[in-house]
């Protein structure tokens, strides 16, 4: 397959994701309203400044969470599987996938902290076969049981080489909403958003056994940039 590609895209600019519009506008309005009330209610301005400092920091973290970098692939996409999310590799193992494929698969899980971009990208070029949403619990996202017991959305993709990939969005202890844009029979490609998970979560990939995995446990990933592996073409 050749040498591993570490950076094959450029981040041209960053904007805020539309999933955060309502939250950010409501949050800003609430902060301004409470700040006005505090300013005119107390002669001592310490409560006002304390509120601005604390809520300003929280609001800044929220803005950071809803970042939406624009990324474009600059090389060949054939056979490449890219990271569907920013975060850190927390699972890298062989598992028996018994829901769809009924065979051994290579599982790669990426955990997204509160400080990561939470937009999700398609991991490869291909066609969306099916999309399934399951209600569930909200265990901490990095726990092994989260993949099977938490609320999740399964996106099954047939890559251009004919192999099937499962991409699973998993809610976490804080995440309470999974948004999936993928629809059955859609053509999909690297660079396109697959969905969005709000506030802390993970994304799992179930790849064929003959795929060449190029990431390691604990490695940081950049969605739509880091090469997870190569399919057997």
Would you spell out the secondary-structure blueprint of this structure?
Blueprint lengths: L8 E8 L4 H21 L4 H20 L1 E7 L6 E3 L4 E11 L5 E10 L6 E3 L4 E9 L11 H4 L2 E8 L4 E8 L5 E4 L6 E2 L4 E6 L2 E7 L4 E2 L6 E2 L5 E4 L3
Antiparallel strand pairs: 1-2, 3-16, 4-5, 4-15, 5-13, 6-12, 7-8, 7-11, 8-9, 9-13, 10-12, 14-16
Order of helices and strands: EHHEEEEEEHEEEEEEEEE
Number of strands: 16
Low-confidence stretches: 1-12
Spatial strand order of the main sheet? 11-7-8-9-13-5-4-15
Give helix % range. Answer: 10-25%
SS strand fraction? 35-45%
Terminus-to-terminus distance: 10 Å
Cα-atom Rg, whole angstroms?
20 Å
Q: Mind describing the biggest β-sheet?
A: 8 strands, antiparallel
Q: How many individual helices?
A: 3
Mean pLDDT: 82
Shape by Cα distribution = elongated
The secondary structure category is: alpha+beta
What do you see in this structure?
The structure is a single chain. This protein is of the alpha+beta class and 233 residues long. It is built from three helices and 16 strands. The chain has helices spanning 21-41, 46-65, 146-149, and strands at residues 9-16, 67-73, 80-82, 87-97, 103-112, 119-121, 126-134, 152-159, 164-171, 177-180, 187-188, 193-198, 201-207, 212-213, 220-221, 227-230. An eight-stranded antiparallel sheet has the order 11-7-8-9-13-5-4-15. Strands 3-16-14 form a three-stranded antiparallel sheet, with no helix packed on it. A hairpin with a 5-residue loop joins strand 4 (87-97) and strand 5 (103-112). Helix 1 packs antiparallel against helix 2. The longest helix has 21 residues, at 21-41. The chain is elongated and about 70 Å long. Residues 1-12 have low confidence and may be disordered.
């Amino acid at each position: 397959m050749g040498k591993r590609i570490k950076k094959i895209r450029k981040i041209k600019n960053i904007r805020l994701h539309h999933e955060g519009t309502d939250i950010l506008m409501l949050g800003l309005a609430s902060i301004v309203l409470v700040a006005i009330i505090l300013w005119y209610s107390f002669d001592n301005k310490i409560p006002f400044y304390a509120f601005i400092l604390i809520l300003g920091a929280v609001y800044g973290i929220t803005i950071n969470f809803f970042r939406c970098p624009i990324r474009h692939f600059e090389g060949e996409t054939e056979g490449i599987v890219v990271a569907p999310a920013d975060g850190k590799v927390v699972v890298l193992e062989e598992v028996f996938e018994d829901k769809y494929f009924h065979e051994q698969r290579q599982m790669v899980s990426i955990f997204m902290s509160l400080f990561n971009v939470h937009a999700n990208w398609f991991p490869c070029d291909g066609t969306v076969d099916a999309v399934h949403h399951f209600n569930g619990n909200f265990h901490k996202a990095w726990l092994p049981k989260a993949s099977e017991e938490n609320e999740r959305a399964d996106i099954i993709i047939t890559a251009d080489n004919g192999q099937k990939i499962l991409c699973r969005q998993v809610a976490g202890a804080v995440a309470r909403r999974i948004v999936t844009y993928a629809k059955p029979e859609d053509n999909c490609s690297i660079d396109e958003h697959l969905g969005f998970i709000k506030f802390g979560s993970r994304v799992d990939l179930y790849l064929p056994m003959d795929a060449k995995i190029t990431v390691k446990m604990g490695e940081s990933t950049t969605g739509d940039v880091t090469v997870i592996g190569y399919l057997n073409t």
